[in-house]
């Protein structure tokens, strides 16, 4: 099976969170770790061949994962990084590095070969009634990642949890430690409609007598995490000591975080390409995790921490580029917390008229995100452009337009993202901000990669 066919088969599995077809009475798929464990066992339990770090949370888990993997890479460890979702190609979810080289996506041939192996194992389990149905998209890709890391001889794997924690497919590993980033309301249909319930799901990645690295946050989240940690005799590590007392520099349009922190009684210069003050929390978590790993015998020097932070690559997060001579800022901002972070960054960094290209998934808090972001673009000369994404979960043009009407906001509605971007690029001066969903940023990036617009 070639790569294109493997991808076609993979997407035919459907997305676990996709809305049910209209009129369908079929129950939603239930997550069950027993299914993932059965699949992994059939594959020889590849996840047992490397040391794992699990990272869960609502916001910042991807940035924390990318930063930590970069630190491990800079320390010379053979490292794997598993994240989700991807922006353009599914290969982005699975990266490896050896001998300090840059993290690289899994190649097409390896992905296709491992897909066949996972698919064959799953079909055998279904035939033998050891699985009630074929694995989900996420379960299959997670299994491919485990196999890829095992084959590549990865020693350390940084695994970003996909959804929640307790029942996530990544949670079949036995992590050396667990990291929990900021928690807020998201995926409430699946995880619960309160911070307490969601935090309880995230706490599912904690292990008996294990280690939890986190930061003080919402009181309900602190309480829920603390209760689980006490019940499991978990040692908690507070990453707050690695937050800057204050930024050494005012916010800059070059989108960098520059400051110093004390790490193991030494000054460490943080020079991160990840923009926004919110990233300081994610960087602190990565530093704390690196220090904890070093204490467990996984050597990571302060120099490796600084170098790893400096060389972190995590596109789509306050990412700046130029298209047709226009300044463009792309940020996934996929929930209210992310929208507030983007709003803070824009308020402190940009002046003058700006154009917003906005879209979102229908199952997100679209109205709340719009309420947070739209006012910044209602100043004289500002524009708001709305368009549905090419995604089964996407909010429709009508839904987006209705939200703008309810907020008494003037907005232009387009049939698709490409049309909205083309219009934005044709308008007057000012920055174009693309925000509202990982899938929106990914769709725009795919169009850029195909040469839709010139730099």
UniProtKB/TrEMBL annotation:
<keyword id="KW-0289">Folate biosynthesis</keyword>
<comment type="function">
    <text>Functions in two distinct reactions of the de novo folate biosynthetic pathway. Catalyzes the addition of a glutamate residue to dihydropteroate (7,8-dihydropteroate or H2Pte) to form dihydrofolate (7,8-dihydrofolate monoglutamate or H2Pte-Glu). Also catalyzes successive additions of L-glutamate to tetrahydrofolate or 10-formyltetrahydrofolate or 5,10-methylenetetrahydrofolate, leading to folylpolyglutamate derivatives.</text>
</comment>
<dbReference type="InterPro" id="IPR001645">
    <property type="entry name" value="Folylpolyglutamate_synth"/>
</dbReference>
<comment type="similarity">
    <text>Belongs to the folylpolyglutamate synthase family.</text>
</comment>
<dbReference type="GO" id="GO:0008841">
    <property type="term" value="F:dihydrofolate synthase activity"/>
</dbReference>
<feature type="domain" description="Mur ligase C-terminal">
    <location>
        <begin position="316"/>
        <end position="434"/>
    </location>
</feature>
<dbReference type="InterPro" id="IPR004101">
    <property type="entry name" value="Mur_ligase_C"/>
</dbReference>
<protein>
    <recommendedName>
        <fullName>Dihydrofolate synthase/folylpolyglutamate synthase</fullName>
        <ecNumber>6.3.2.12</ecNumber>
        <ecNumber>6.3.2.17</ecNumber>
    </recommendedName>
</protein>
<dbReference type="GO" id="GO:0005737">
    <property type="term" value="C:cytoplasm"/>
</dbReference>
<dbReference type="GO" id="GO:0005524">
    <property type="term" value="F:ATP binding"/>
</dbReference>
<dbReference type="InterPro" id="IPR036615">
    <property type="entry name" value="Mur_ligase_C_dom_sf"/>
</dbReference>
<dbReference type="GO" id="GO:0004326">
    <property type="term" value="F:tetrahydrofolylpolyglutamate synthase activity"/>
</dbReference>
<dbReference type="GO" id="GO:0046872">
    <property type="term" value="F:metal ion binding"/>
</dbReference>
<dbReference type="InterPro" id="IPR018109">
    <property type="entry name" value="Folylpolyglutamate_synth_CS"/>
</dbReference>
<dbReference type="Pfam" id="PF02875">
    <property type="entry name" value="Mur_ligase_C"/>
</dbReference>
<keyword id="KW-0067">ATP-binding</keyword>
<keyword id="KW-0436">Ligase</keyword>
<comment type="pathway">
    <text>Cofactor biosynthesis; tetrahydrofolate biosynthesis; 7,8-dihydrofolate from 2-amino-4-hydroxy-6-hydroxymethyl-7,8-dihydropteridine diphosphate and 4-aminobenzoate: step 2/2.</text>
</comment>
<keyword id="KW-0547">Nucleotide-binding</keyword>
<feature type="domain" description="Mur ligase central">
    <location>
        <begin position="145"/>
        <end position="290"/>
    </location>
</feature>
<dbReference type="Pfam" id="PF08245">
    <property type="entry name" value="Mur_ligase_M"/>
</dbReference>
<keyword id="KW-0479">Metal-binding</keyword>
<dbReference type="GO" id="GO:0046656">
    <property type="term" value="P:folic acid biosynthetic process"/>
</dbReference>
<dbReference type="InterPro" id="IPR036565">
    <property type="entry name" value="Mur-like_cat_sf"/>
</dbReference>
<dbReference type="InterPro" id="IPR013221">
    <property type="entry name" value="Mur_ligase_cen"/>
</dbReference>
<comment type="pathway">
    <text>Cofactor biosynthesis; tetrahydrofolylpolyglutamate biosynthesis.</text>
</comment>
<keyword id="KW-0460">Magnesium</keyword>
């Amino acid at each position: 099976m070639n790569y294109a066919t493997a991808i076609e088969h993979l997407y035919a599995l459907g997305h676990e969170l996709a809305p049910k077809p209209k009129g369908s009475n079929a129950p939603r798929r239930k997550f069950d770790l027993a299914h993932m464990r059965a699949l992994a066992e059939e594959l020889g339990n590849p996840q047992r061949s490397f040391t794992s770090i699990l990272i869960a949370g609502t916001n910042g888990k991807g940035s924390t994962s990318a930063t930590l993997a970069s630190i491990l890479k800079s320390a010379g460890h053979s490292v794997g990084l598993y994240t989700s979702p991807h922006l353009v190609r599914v290969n982005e979810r699975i990266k490896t590095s050896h001998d300090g080289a840059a993290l690289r996506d899994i190649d097409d041939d390896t992905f296709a070969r491992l897909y066949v192996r996972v698919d064959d194992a799953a079909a055998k389990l279904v035939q033998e009634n050891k699985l009630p149905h074929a694995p989900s998209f996420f379960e299959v890709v997670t299994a491919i990642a485990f196999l890829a890391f095992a084959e590549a001889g990865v020693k350390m794997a940084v695994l970003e949890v996909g959804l929640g924690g307790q029942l996530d497919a990544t949670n079949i590993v036995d992590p050396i430690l667990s990291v929990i980033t900021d928690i807020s309301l998201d995926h409430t249909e699946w995880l619960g409609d309160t911070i307490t319930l969601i935090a309880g799901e995230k706490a599912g990645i904690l292990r008996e007598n294990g280690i939890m690295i986190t930061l003080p946050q919402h009181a309900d989240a602190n309480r829920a995490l603390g209760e689980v940690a006490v019940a499991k005799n978990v040692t908690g590590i507070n990453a707050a000591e690695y937050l800057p007392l204050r930024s050494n520099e005012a916010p800059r349009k070059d989108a960098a975080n520059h400051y110093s922190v004390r790490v193991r009684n030494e000054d460490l210069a943080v020079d991160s390409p990840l923009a926004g003050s919110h990233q300081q929390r994610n960087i602190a978590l990565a530093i704390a995790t690196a220090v904890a790993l070093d204490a467990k015998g996984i050597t990571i020097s302060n120099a490796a921490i600084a170098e790893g932070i400096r060389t972190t690559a995590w596109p789509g997060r306050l990412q700046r580029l130029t298209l047709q001579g226009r300044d463009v800022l792309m940020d996934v901002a996929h929930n209210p917390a992310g929208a507030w972070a983007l709003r803070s960054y824009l308020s402190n960094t940009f002046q003058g008229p700006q154009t917003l290209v906005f879209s979102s998934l229908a199952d997100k808090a679209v109205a709340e995100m719009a309420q947070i972001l739209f006012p910044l673009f209602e100043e004289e000369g500002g524009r708001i452009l709305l368009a549905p994404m090419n995604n089964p979960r996407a909010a429709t043009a009508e839904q987006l337009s209705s939200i703008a009407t309810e907020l008494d906001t003037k907005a232009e509605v387009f049939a698709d993202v490409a049309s909205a971007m083309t219009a934005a690029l044709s308008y007057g001066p000012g920055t174009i901000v693309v925000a509202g969903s990982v899938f929106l940023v990914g769709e725009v990036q795919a169009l850029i990669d195909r040469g839709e617009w010139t730099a």
